[in-house]
Design a protein that fits this description.
By secondary structure, this protein is mostly beta strands. The chain has 6 helices and 36 strands. The strands form 9 sheets. Strands 4, 33, 34, 35 and 36 form a 5-stranded antiparallel beta sheet that branches. The longest helix has 19 residues. The protein is globular and about 70 Å long. The two termini are 19 Å apart.
């Protein structure tokens, strides 16, 4: 759960350096080696040999390391992070709360919004999410307040309303200073500055169809994938602090750390307006619009053998970009030169809509009837995780270290333990797997919906879910699975 390198206060070794701890560890390692040394009828295809010369160095490390969470808290309170390196695994809290069924759902009322497609935690109390009705919203978990962030508009304007699909992606750069999402036009991207959510720029003239997903390569470079089978590379250049302050002073604009723009309405550019103390000759109050840039992509390339790029993921270990297309292919691009390296056909070509990556280098692809695990080095299928509910469809997936969270089209969240190779089991009832069932949400009660749902029990699809930094809170959202139904669902599990 937690570990900290302790320093001795008096003597040569810290208080946690007990010889019994080392003896217990040696006994476990010895038993493991004996078990591996047993010859089986079928020899292994791959064998690994350990070096005993490293035992002394490892023993010193174990003796000087405390795995007590109490020591971790006390050392952190004293501010000894630099002297005593420490770390805590957020996966432990997630596992404990899941297996002991401690997560309780708190529904979020979204009024008449339509289908939440993407979400991210901005802080320990704020969640940002995008909807099909093209609304970018910020939800405060503590005050249960919803704030709308005005959409940014490009110079070419928006297309016809029937051609807009809403916001499908919300991504935060590694340093958490910029947020990228969809613009008012679904073919363009918008970038906001964090934590104030001031507008930075609009990326335009790269895609001819809806932008389905985005991923950050670093704090400046962003990649977007579209339904027009093209991928675009963007370079986001934020203003220096001095220039930004001078522009704000000249425009009378005040940045707010609460994540809200000044009240007063929205102009034609979709940016908020702010009142000034000065009055115009006719008595009307002057209003200022925060300005933002219009940028073009550094490069736009077609994803070969792809039909509608649906999801993107950046593999930092291999510096590769993985793209998932709806025709059942996964494509690998080099992040260094933005060139496509290879494409591989997946076993299933039906409803491949979500892609997740583990820190160790494993991909998870959500299909109609199962979740496919791929080795990032060879793109070979490692395991097919079948769903426990027929015909549900996998709509969202994410890794929390060794826990794979799967959101389905039937409003059910499932949790797969990668270390155990099976679905996570409840500690309260060992015969039951851990699942979380979402509440009904809201659906517009039209005649077609009433006719369809008379003999069926309606459940919303989980299009998006995300953990907070501690792993002890989970935001889930979505809406009706049918494309012609209007509705929403959102909830916070804590």
């Amino acid at each position: 759960m937690a570990q900290i390198q302790r320093l001795p206060i008096y003597g040569n070794r810290p208080s946690c350096a007990e010889s019994s701890r080392l003896e217990e560890r040696r006994n476990r390692v010895r038993a493991l080696r004996l078990d591996r040394a047993r010859k089986s009828d079928k020899p292994d295809d791959f064998m690994c040999y350990e070096d005993s010369d490293d035992d002394e160095l490892e023993s010193t490390h174990v003796l000087n390391t405390s795995f007590s969470f109490v020591d971790y808290i006390r050392s952190r309170e004293m501010g000894n992070q630099r002297l005593e390196p420490m770390s805590v695994s957020s996966e432990y809290g997630t596992r404990h709360m899941l297996t002991h069924e401690m997560f309780k759902e708190h529904t979020v009322s979204l009024r008449s919004m339509n289908k939440v497609f993407c979400s991210q935690w901005l802080s320990d109390r704020q969640v940002v999410f995008g909807t099909k009705c093209n609304k970018l919203m910020v939800y405060d978990v503590a005050t249960q307040r919803l704030d709308r962030i005005p959409s940014l508009q490009g110079r070419l304007g928006c297309g016809p309303p029937e051609q807009q699909c809403g916001i499908h992606s919300v991504q935060i750069n590694p340093s958490r200073t910029l947020l990228a999402t969809g613009a008012r036009n679904s073919c363009e991207i918008a970038v906001y500055r964090l934590p104030t959510l001031d507008p930075v720029c609009v990326g335009e003239e790269a895609h001819r169809d809806w932008v389905f997903d985005m991923c950050w390569l670093d704090d400046q470079f962003l990649v977007s994938g579209s339904r027009d089978t093209h991928m675009a590379l963007w370079k986001i250049e934020d203003e220096p602090t001095g220039v930004k302050e001078e522009r704000h002073k000249a425009a009378g604009h005040v940045c707010r750390s609460s994540g809200e723009w000044p009240k007063g309405g929205c102009g034609q550019e979709g940016a908020p307006l702010q009142e000034d103390d000065e009055q115009s000759p006719n008595g009307a109050t002057k209003l200022h619009i925060p300005s933002y840039q219009h940028i073009k992509a550094v490069a736009v390339k077609e994803c070969k053998a792809a039909q509608k790029v649906r999801s993107l993921a950046f593999n930092r270990c291999f510096e590769e970009i993985a793209a998932l297309s709806l025709n059942g292919y996964i494509h690998i691009w080099s992040a260094s030169n933005f060139k496509q390296k290879l494409s591989r056909k997946l076993p299933s070509s039906q409803e491949n809509v979500c892609l997740a990556i583990q820190e160790g280098g494993m991909y998870a692809v959500g299909c109609r009837s199962y979740t496919l695990l791929l080795d990032a080095r060879t793109l070979q299928a490692v395991k097919k995780i079948s769903t426990r509910y027929s015909g549900c469809g996998i709509r969202s997936a994410s890794f929390q270290r060794n826990v794979l969270t799967i959101g389905t089209g039937l409003g059910v969240l499932m949790f797969f333990d990668l270390r155990a190779g099976k679905y996570m089991e409840s500690s309260i009832n060992s015969s039951r797997t851990v699942v979380m069932k979402a509440s009904r949400g809201w659906v517009f009660p039209d005649d077609e919906f009433l006719d369809v749902m008379q003999n069926l029990k309606y459940t919303p699809a989980i299009y998006t879910h995300c953990y907070d930094s501690s792993g002890t809170r989970l935001f889930t959202a979505g809406g009706p699975l049918q494309a012609n139904l209007y509705g929403n669902y959102a909830g916070v599990w804590q």
